[in-house]
Structures are given as structure tokens and as C-alpha cells.
Amino acid sequence: MVARTRFDADPCPVARSVNAIGDWWSLLIVRDAFDGSRRFGEFHRSLGIAKNILVARLRALEEAGVLRGVPAPDGGTHREYLLTDKGRALFPVIVALRQWGEEQCFTPGEQHSRLLDRRTGRPLRPVRIQSADGRLLEPEDTLVEKVREAEGD
Q1: For a designed S-S bond to 135, which of 27, 77, 109, 131 qualifies (C-beta 3.0 to 4.6 A apart)?
Q2: pLDDT, tens digit, 9 for 90 and up, residues 39-74
Q3: Alpha-carbon dihedral sign for residues 114, 120, 126, 132
Q4: What values do phi and psi take at 10, rounded to 5?
Q5: Is the pLDDT of residue 153 over 60?
Q6: Whether this model's pTM surpasses 0.90
Q7: Gap between the Cα atoms of 10 and 104, Å rounded
Q8: Coil, strand, or helix at residue 124?
Q9: In the prediction, which pLDDT does 3 show?
């Protein structure tokens, strides 16, 4: 098996985020947790993922502080997986991925799941990137300030 490249010390927030989340299965597990899945069996049924892969991904999400495993409230032997504050902070990421997918991955009129405001039953506004003063920003309106390597490196 090829060892996965780690980005624990990378100065790029995107690299560290990808490092913490891991792969598509992990994002789908987080999506399902937002949708109310808590138990191993619920994740397994929803995703159709091999059990050994699911065990590994749940463990990695716990180690990353995204999920917290707790004893079942009914006193059973199984555990439940709850989103931590760090995991709940992924909500805008999941919404942005969902909205991108709705716009880019479906043909016009093709059926797909929808994320609705529980109170109004209406779809959410599109996620938009804004400056500190409220202006809408496009990629060309931003720049990345890179971390300079220490001299002599």
C-alpha cells in the first residue's frame, strides 16, 4: 500500500483542510452526519461503503476532531458519532459543494436532492464570497499571501 502524503505542517490552509478531511468518503460521512446519521449502520446503509473503510474513516474523523464517538443513549453496545464544533464548522463547505454540484453536475431539469431552510421550506441562497466590506468577490479579486520560508532553507 502506498503511504498517503501528509500536510500537517503545510503553511497552506487548503492543504491542511484536505489533510484533516482525507477523502471523498470522509466528506460524505460528514454530509450524512449533517443529515442526521449517527450510527455506524446508518452511515453504512447510506453510503454502501465497505465496513473496513467506514471504520477507518470514522476513526480518522474522530482523530481529526471532526466527529466524537459516544456511547449510545439507549445503553446499547454501539456508539454514535456526533459532529463536534470543528465538524459543524464544515457546514458552509458542504453547502458550497452541494451548490456547486447542483449547478455543475446535473443537466437542466435533472432531479437531485435539495437542501431547504427548515423554517420556510425554500432553497438556500447561493454561497457567495464577500470582502470584509460586503462586496462580492471573484477569484481574480483575491490574492494569496504566501508564507516565506526562513532564510537558509
Answers
A1: 131
A2: 999 999 999 999 999 999 999 999 999 999 999 888
A3: negative
A4: -65, 140
A5: no
A6: no
A7: 30
A8: coil
A9: 63
Which alpha helices (H) appear in 7-147, and where do they start and end? 13-21, 24-34, 40-47, 51-63, 85-88, 91-104
Query: Residue 30 contacts by C-beta under 8 Å, 6 or more apart in sequence?
Result: 21, 61, 66, 67, 83, 87, 90, 94
Q: What angle do CA 103, 24, 35 make, to 5 degrees?
A: 70
**Taking the CA of residue 84 as centre, how many other CA atoms within 13 Å lie in the half-sphere pointing to its CB?**
12
Instruction: Name all domains of the chain by residue range, CATH numbers in brackets.
Output: 13-141 (1.10.10.10)
Asked if 67 contacts 61 with a C-beta cutoff of 8 angstroms, the reply is: yes
Note whether 10 and 16 are within 8 A (CB). Answer: yes
Location of C-alpha cell 460528514: 30
From CA 40, how far away is CA 51, in angstroms rounded? 9
Contacts with 86 (C-beta within 8 Å, 6 or more apart), sequence order = 64, 65, 66
Comparing C-alpha atoms, which of 85, 82, 62, 83 is closest to residue 72?
Answer: 82
Look up residue 71 and give its three cell numbers: 456511547
Q: How far apart are alpha carbons 45 and 39 in whole angstroms? A: 10
